[in-house]
Amino acid sequence: MKFQTKEIILKNGKKAALRNAVPEDALEMAELQKKISGETDFLMRYPEECVDMDEEGERNFLKERQDSNDSLILVCEIDGKISGSIALKREAHIKTKHRGSIGIGVLKKYWNMGIGTLFVEEIIKISEDLGIKQLELGVFEGNERGMALYRKMGFVQAGYLPDAVCLKDGRMLKEYTMIKKL
Asked: Residue 102 sits in a domain of what CATH number?
């Protein structure tokens, strides 16, 4: 899906750009996912599980997303470097195509700059334009920062899966489903 690049000003006054992830971002995106996965327990994978995210595989994945009418990956670029990404995937079947799911990740050094808020605001606008009626996401127990962002953006908890995640240290976490009606 095509997105018109937007220049933005972050909370700290720094300029950034929201833009489509493109196949040329493949290596940086693969490295980004590995790094983000190592900075928090609140993503689905550990860094060593990102082995399928090699440059070629990521290039093909980004090309598919770029050519899709039902999915999109946006990145926030600061000083020529990708600081995070957000993905939107619309359900494909007639009965569920009113639903879209999102996933978001931002490098820790860029937290508290407003990137998450800007990402979610943009995805809400895009979803509305596509006729999506409900956005959905999963968030792990303990991810208070993420939950605060989603609540601020109008998401509400719709349920949870107990013991959905087992961390390396044996802790079990719930995964909450949050939705936003559009």
From this structure: 3.40.630.30
> Would you tell me how many other CB atoms lie within 10 Å of the CB of residue 98?
14
Compute the distance between CA of residue 44 and CA of residue 63 in angstroms, rounded to an integer. Answer: 23
Residue 84 included in any domain: yes
Domain, as residue range, for 20:
6-181
- Residue 15 in any domain: the answer is yes
pLDDT tens by residue, the chain, 182 residues: 889 999 999 999 999 999 999 999 999 998 999 999 999 999 999 999 887 667 888 888 899 888 888 999 999 999 999 999 999 999 999 999 999 999 999 999 999 999 999 999 999 999 999 999 999 999 999 999 999 999 999 999 999 999 999 999 999 999 999 999 99
pTM for the full model? 0.93
